[in-house]
Amino acid sequence: MRKVLLVLFIIAAAASAKAIITTLDAPDTNISGLAWGDGSLWALDAVTDYVYELDPETGNIISSFYVYHPVTITPTGLAYSENHNMVLCGGWYNTNGYVYKYSPTGSYIGMIDMCGG
Questions:
Q1: How far are the Cα atoms of 15, 26, 51, 100, 109 from residue 79, in angstroms, in the given order?
Q2: Quick check: pTM over 0.90?
Q3: What is the spatial distance between Cα 106 and Cα 39, in angstroms, rounded to a whole number?
């Protein structure tokens, strides 16, 4: 019975597998976050603290900006808010989580301390 379930699982997984459409070179060496927004692919580097806007077809850098963060964090995530037209970078320092808000052109909008209010 277990072998039958395993075989069915493998068949189902193979049937639902998607083909790789394209691969892109990373714009930097320590990408820790990816986001999709406003027709672009966005990438965040955890060491250099740069956000890159990429052409999703070619991988070419359209723009980039430095992630200013008043609290020392290692950026660990990235999101794009279509509703508010902003890039959101998240990270942790000790036990507090922070989200930094930027315009797509890199203007610092502010931060949210996810644990302290």
A1: 30, 17, 11, 10, 15
A2: no
A3: 17
Region of residue 35 (left: phi > 0; alpha: psi -120 to 50; beta: else): beta
Question: Is there a contact between 89 and 49 (Cβ–Cβ < 8 Å)?
Answer: no
Q: Which domains does the chain have, with CATH numbers?
A: 22-113 (2.40.10.480)
pLDDT, tens digit, for every residue of 87-108?
877 777 766 788 888 899 998 8
